[in-house]
Structure formats: C-alpha cells, structure tokens
Amino acid sequence: MTNKLRFPENFLWGGAIAANQVEGAYLEGGKGLTTVDLLPTGEERFNIMLGNIDNFVPKEGVYYPSHEAIDFYHRYKEDIALFAEMGFKSFRMSIAWSRIFPTGEEEVPNETGLQFYDDVFDELLKYNIEPVVTTCHFDVPVHLVEKYGSWKNRKMVELYEKYTRTIFERYKDKVKYWMTFNEINMLLHLPFIGAGIVLNEGEDKNQVLYQAAHHQLVASALAVKACHEIIPDAQIGCMLAAGMTYPFSSNPEDIWAAMDKDRESFFFIDVQSRGEYPGYAKRFFEDHNLDIKMQPGDEQILKENTVDYIGFSYYASRCTSTDPEVLSDQTAGNVFGSVRNPYLEASEWGWTIDPKGLRITANQLHDRYQKPLFIVENGLGAIDVVEEDGSINDDYRIDYLQQHFVEMAEAIKDGVDIIGYTSWGPIDLVSASTGEMKKRYGYIYVDRDNQGNGTLKRTKKKGFDWLKQVIQTNGASILNK
What are the residues whose beta carbons fall under 8 Å from the beta carbon of 217, sequence distance 6 or more? Predict the structure, then answer.
C-alpha cells in the first residue's frame, strides 16, 4: 500500500476546444450560419446570449470573432502537431452542426463538412490522440432558430437525432468518446448561446426554458441510444458546467439556498444519468405552474438510454446567501452569479480560483452518480505578455493548473473514477463569454487581438514544456514533492 498520489495508467491527458471558437471559415465548405456567428464583441454580446436578438444575419460593420477565430479550419495540421509534441493522449473538440447540415433540414449531409472532420480525426489518430467529440457545443443552425424557434420546438429532437446518427455512422471507426450537449445547464442562464432560444415579450421564461430542456434531454437520450447501436464499443457522456455552491454561512437558510442552486444544474444530469425527472424538479414545475409537454414514450426513452460517463467543466466554485447585504457583494465575470467568497482569490475576469473546489465537486458528482467522470474543461483565462525576446512566461497559469492537478489526484485517491482531463483552450481561442482574444487559456499563444488583428502565428508559452513534462511523467513531475 502506498500513500503517494498518482494518476491511473492510460489517463487521458489533453486539451479541449469548440468548433465555433477556433475554426473560423464560417461560411466556407458549404457551412451554414450558426448561432455563434451572430455574436459580436462588445456590450451587445451578452444581451444576445441572454436571448435578446432581433436579427438573424450578421450586421455590416460589426466584428464577429467566430467568423475567422484562429483559423483552425486551415491550420489544424500545424496545431495538432503541437498538441502531439505536448504528448496529448486525447483531444476534445466539437462538430459544427451547420457544417454537416447547413440549415439543419437537408435530406443529404454536406460532404465537404463531413470530409473536414474526417481529415481532422485522421490527423489526431496519426499521433495516437483519442478524439473526444461533443455533438453540439453552443451551436444551432440559424435557420432552425428562425423557422422553429430552436429547442422550443419538438421538431428539433428529430433533426438532432438525424444529425447525430449521420456523424456516428460516418466516424464510427475513428471516434470512441462522445458527448451530447456542451454545458447543457447553460440553457437556463444564457438561452441563446446554450440552445439558440430567443425570448419573446410576454413569454413565461421558465415554461420556455424547461420545455426546451425536456426536448434536449429526450434528444440526448436518443443520441445515446443511436451511439450504442451504431458504435457498440463507444462511450457517450453528458456535459455539465459544474462547480460546487458553498453556503456563505452555517445558517440553515444559506445551506438550503446552496443546495437549491446546485440542483438547478444537477437537474439535467439527474435525468441524463439516472433516467428520470427528480422529485425536486416536479415540485418546481408544480410551484411555478409549468406544464411540460411530453410525448408518450418520452419517459421510457429517458430511462433506457442513460449516459456512460459524466463530462464536466470546472473553473470556479460558487457561493450564495439569503442575507441581502451579503448578496449585494457579487463576483464579476461568472455567468452563474456568486457571492464573493472571502477565503478565495479571483482571476483577472473575476472568476474565483478554488483548486480544492475541484476535488469537492468531483467527489460530489461521483457520490451522486457513481459513474466515471471526465474533466473536459478547466483552466485560467489571463492576459499574457510577449516579452522582447518572444518568450511568454505564464507562471500564474502553471501555478493554477498545478494546484488543480494535485486536487484532481487527491480526488482519484478518494476513490473517484476520473478517466481523463482536457484543459480548456490548449491553444488561445475566442472567449465564449466575452468574444475576446486577450482572455487567453492556452499553452500556445496565437497572435490575434480583440479586433481581429494579427498574423495568427503560433508561439509556445512556458506552460507548453511544463505540461509536456506532466504528461510524460503521468503527473509524477508535480505530485508528492
């Protein structure tokens, strides 16, 4: 028996990106317009993400960072070679729905789009990097928003099932790890980015969002069913924007408020992992006079097609209170809203830095679901400075990651089954929340600014070689020192 911390053999170290934040080429190769292509930089961005949008075409003279992003579409070979140099065992990415079905309603998929992802997967597999693929990462064809109201409409279930069956059939020999909806709980917080939902005046917001959630949950279960049929040796998971909510005090009212906040997110994973609506959700529907329309057979579909593993992002813990004075001191930058935790520091964007929270969250999810976990997003968004000699010394990022890796190893020692870790944005990319480039997560610097200027040249940061050593030693270089 050893007291040492360690990572399992075959642990899936890697990095994670999303199609809309890296690919660019937004109308190239037959791709259709997608929801993120309507998100500009600047003040209007957040308002649109909330579901307040009045146009479905890009406006003249407005900068949309997704349109070019970091041009992964044309540079993927160069980027994947760098990931391989770091020793990646896995690479989490997403498929852009509108590259496969440009409007979402085509009878025949777009071969150019299908071939692009074939080429990316082949490049990854050339270096023995396991693709981990999200089918829908903040990505809805704009045509489906205009015609059907996106996930408000039951029609989306059928269209999503066709899309997922198409990609499972196409890539069944290349992709063995899948996820359905990225950060599915984001639907409640940023409806347009989470699910392409536009909120109209007079609509009951809860009714709209939870009906859309039901449609996504049924669609997710049907994707699980299709994946298990088409690729029997694959694993398919869900994906949660996670982070434990702490009560600000030991006041039982604060304890309950924190549990209530966590349940807002657990609701989705409870259904995807356990296969049924939890009692607290049914009470919420009743208390708020919500009538969730279900079709005959929906409950059976949910029950029989639960996920194989729980994918989750972890950037920060949260904190809540019932004291109005305490509630007035909120942290900046976090979509979920959080009372400032006096015990923790924050990033330049106001995100709480809480390595111990990763261990707590992992234990919480494992205790609740008893399924393997996959940490598919984690990292520090920061402003990086290029020195005169061209070097980028991101010691703050190394420190952040090292602390989180140690707590991840502690969770594994606690008995939590964690199959892998893909840090967010291993190469600098467009921020989903702000549209900025200066909020950098990567081990690889991309010469691009918030206005789209720059050469797009890739440069290794100090963190590049640090992570390479971590992966080479399977964590031994940072554990048990």
Answer: 268, 271, 272, 302
Amino acid at the residue 201? E
Q: Does the predicted TM-score (pTM) go above 0.90? A: yes
Q: Are 348 and 400 in contact (CB under 8 A)?
A: no
The residue among 224, 223, 195 whose CA lies nearest residue 209 is 195
| Strand-pair category, 352-353 with 345-346 | antiparallel
Q: Is the dihedral of CA 477, 478, 480, 481 positive or negative?
A: positive
* Rounded Cα distance, 241 and 134, in Å: 14
Burial, 229: exposed, middle or buried (Cβ in 10 Å; 0-12, 13-18, 19+)?
exposed
Q: Report, as residue numbers or ranges, the catalytic residues.
A: 183, 377
For 46, half-sphere exposure in the C-beta direction (CA atoms, 13 angstrom radius) is 9
Nearest to 238 by CA among 178, 315, 175: 178
Average pLDDT, the chain: 95
Closest CA to 28 of 115, 91, 92, 108: 115
In the three-class reduction of DSSP (H, G, I as helix; E, B as strand; rest coil), residue 327 is classed as helix
Q: What is the pLDDT of residues 193-249, one digit of tens each?
A: 999 999 988 899 999 999 999 999 999 999 999 999 999 999 999 999 999 999 999
DSSP 3-state of 102: coil
Report whether 38 contacts 442 (CB < 8 A).
no
Alpha carbon of residue 373 to chain centroid: 14
Identify the burial level of 206 via C-beta atoms within 10 angstroms of its C-beta, where 0-12 means exposed, 13-18 middle and 19 or more buried: middle
Indicate the fold that domain 12-472 takes in CATH. Answer: TIM Barrel (3.20.20)
Q: Taking a C-beta distance cutoff of 8 angstroms, is the pair 316, 237 a contact?
A: no
